[in-house]
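Summary for the funding panel

The consortium committed to producing paired sequence-structure records for every protein in the target list. Below we show the first two records in order, beginning with the earlier of the two.
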Amino acid sequence: MKKLFGLMAMLLVAMTFVSCGDDKDEPDQPKINGIYSVLSGNATNYETTTESFYKFDVLGTSGRYIEMHNVKFDSRMPITITMRVPLSDCSRYVVNDSYTFDGQSISITPDLYRGGTWTPYSERPITKLIVHFDTKKKTYDIKFDCSGITVSGEGTLYIN
């Protein structure tokens, strides 16, 4: 009986240590499906909107881009366009929740969305690009030149 009691006591002590977890467990980081500039009135229905907005697709592994939807850089532009700027050649700096893409010293060929496909738009290169966004503060700012026009913007982010 003493042997059985001793065996049970040792088993109980061993199970107690096995079941303890690490108190230093970090919480899981939320998965980010998309980072967008906020629409007017804080709307988040990007599928049907005709207003301008940015999509920052910079955390994925299939490529990093900034998509500019329904944009018009100058009043002389007859229509709005949807354009994608690849960030693969830009310097990338990440500090905690803050991301900076620096393409100030390079020329970037954007893609224009035409007829349901992305087409290189070498006639209008992007230069002096600098974009910064913070997923914790939910803010962004962007600045670049395109065909002699300086484009800049800043605002609030919607992250889903």
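The next record, for a separate protein in the list, is shown here:
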Amino acid sequence: MSKKYALVTGASSGIGLEISKCLARRGYSLVLVARREKKLRNISQKIINDYNVNANYIVIDLEDPKSPQAIYDYCQNKGYFISLLVNNAGYALPTPFHKTIMDAEEKFLRVLGIAVVALTKLFINDMISAKKGNIMMISSVAAFAPPSSIQILYGPIKTFINRFSEGLNLSYNKTGITSTAVCPGYTVTNFHAASGVQREMDLVPSFMKKKAIRIAEVAVNATLNGKKICVPTKTYKLIVFLLKVLPHFLFPIFSKSLAPGRYEK
């Protein structure tokens, strides 16, 4: 079995699951991280059977401040060198900002931000020693968009992830380590239903909804090639370009048809 190991957070569904399978097809053994044991057990066994790689899993919640260290210690105890770290786990809060309790906000920021920093800090030291390593950050097109009137912390934390990834490249490219910020747009997963915005997702034009397997393939290729920013699909490359060059006051004009709810007062 393969000696190349990748660790994927949020590996039990959606983009994380497809990234895991994509890496297994490329010969990576896996450490899968998520909260649902039954799903992880079934997924890991299927990956072992389908791709003849090792696939272990850790049932853990990244809301727990101790979880990054527990994940790292597990890999150390197993003797796994994680040469590819995929920071994918994430969700969005279903309630308006003024109705969301602070504890929920802190847990959200921990999963999408602090845990990403902590896991990267832990695993990057081994990558520095080995003089090689790839880091993938699942960000979002929302990182480039103007402020939204729904899930108002989601865009800012993804902007932070992009800047964090840029900083890692600036500091560690010379040691053989690359970081890739992957910025997908609307992707067909259970993310929107779980985040309480399935209605808005249902109203998005079909040409803007992309399949998770397509996003995963592009993301893995970009990461293994050391690309710094990856915006999957031509549709979203064009949208990001427009977001960068057009005045932000124009976006609410188009939002009702392209991004329902995002800029409504």
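Regarding this second record: Residues 5-258 form a domain with the Rossmann fold fold (CATH 3.40.50.720). Residues 178 and 226 are 5 Å apart (CA to CA).
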